[in-house]
Amino acid sequence: MELEQATQAKLQDLERRNEVALQGGGASRVSKHKQGGRLTARERLDILLDPGSFVEMDRFVTHRCTNFGMDDSKVPGDGVITGYGRVNGKLVYAYSQDFTVIGGSMSRTQANKIIKIMDLAVKNGAPVVGLNDSGGARIQEGIESLGGYADIFTRNVMASGVVPQITGIMGPCAGGAVYSPSITDFIFMVKKTSYMFVTGPDVIKTVTHEDVTKEDLGGAITHSQKSGVAHFACEDDKHTLLMIRELLGFLPSNNLDEPPVLPTTDRPDRMCEMLNAYIPDNPKKPYDMLGLITEVVDEHYFLEVHKHYAQNVIVGFARLNGRSVGVVANQPQILAGCLDIEASRKAARFIRLCDSFNIPIVSFVDVPGFLPGTDQEWKGIITHGAKLLYAYAEATVPKITLITRKAYGGAYIVMGSKLLRSDINLAYPTAEIAVMGAEGAVNIIFREKITKASDPVAEKARLIKEYEQKFSNPYVSAELGYTDEVIEPALTRRRLIDSLEMLKNKRDIMPPKKHGNIPL
Ligand code: HXC
What is this structure's pTM? Predict the structure, then answer.
């Protein structure tokens, strides 16, 4: 078909404008940016989203700043690419900051673009993925830029618990800019090329006289191991984006939606024979809880969240007969599986995430208690441990708990016990559900008897044995109905799936209130 001349000119004009926009900050900036294996903002979206699914919005938006000669440096899109696409066929909104355009810095108009897709995401009930790569507030714009950030923070808060929000930190993220990612549900960082901090090394040097590199201060390793700010530390840009896709596969689109169910070839009644010999006879001997989890779940696949942080507790996603579950587990290999401040905070936040998005919680318990010591007490284990208790008790999703070995005292109650509105409590025959370990208990209640005995060592050993026979087993709890079933370990997968199926239509609510006051 022959086009009229004027129309043809308009189409060519559109093509030319598109070409300019696609160049971002220009060839030399793009080539500098790509040194070290970093991808451009558009290449990142191409990997994040299903091929050909991305629809860009606001491609021609430019900033309106006239300070410091800024009117001469306008690039269509203004340093961020925004729009929507699909991940595994499901709608996702995304933005990707373009460092080649004025350092990806946040202008008022860049914020407006991001806000637009966040509002659409909440209205349409789909996740938002933000790929951050920015020098922070656009310095030339001053307060206008700060206003933009504040509007994004507000949207983050409004969207929290309504749609999943995921952040990829793909480059610098400094100053107040870190607070948007930290409100989102998950932070992914790229090793060696991304960093986050409230104040950078130079300011730190001036104020505290500490010498620290950007990497040590706020790199992916630091935040995934020390601070816990980042949930995932990935090898490079591509790995990060593929991991975000992977994670999205476990989440529903919004809080009114159910998590995806994937077909599986792993039989629901598969017996886990190796688990019959998995728990060591010696209660002081550690074992790897991760091995138990992966033995039980579909295709042995477990997506561990916060893998390198507070490793005495394990959290992550798996599937049981195709359904997403959030797994929370003590790790007897680290600190004997004791709960400390970091583990309590890690698990509590994960449980609240699962509860927000209708993901059942399966807990594997082997916990000797809360970690003793002045350090923990003075840093507030009372408050932080209560977070975990609070999160378990308020969660209304199906909650299934399996006690594999130790479940002592307050930590027993906290770790998804029946006493905190958990639905099903299972235990292995090796479970020891008691107020405390036998030795500690005997030391306290029989102190005088032991001291006065003709052979105190033999008397103590006798009393410990007696205590163990009486309390260090699952049967007292089973007699009282606190444990629903004592199972042969080989049956674990089957029973967890039976329980999940049985609880599929669970309805439970909290009393009406504005919001609770979790001990923050
Ligand atoms: C305007 C910026 C910018 C910014 C970078 N650029 N950051 N322009 N505002 N915040 C520009 C640079 O001038 C440069 O332009 C281009 O982006 C690339 O930057 P380089 O410095 O050449 O890149 P690099 O060497 O890789 O260094 C990256 C960087 C550095 C470490 C991020 O640019 C930097 O320190 N930027 C400032 C960081 C900062 O202090 N931001 C404010 C934080 S406070 P040309 O034209 O030369 O290529 C904040 C408050 C938020 O963000 C509060 C929210 C409530």
Answer: 0.96
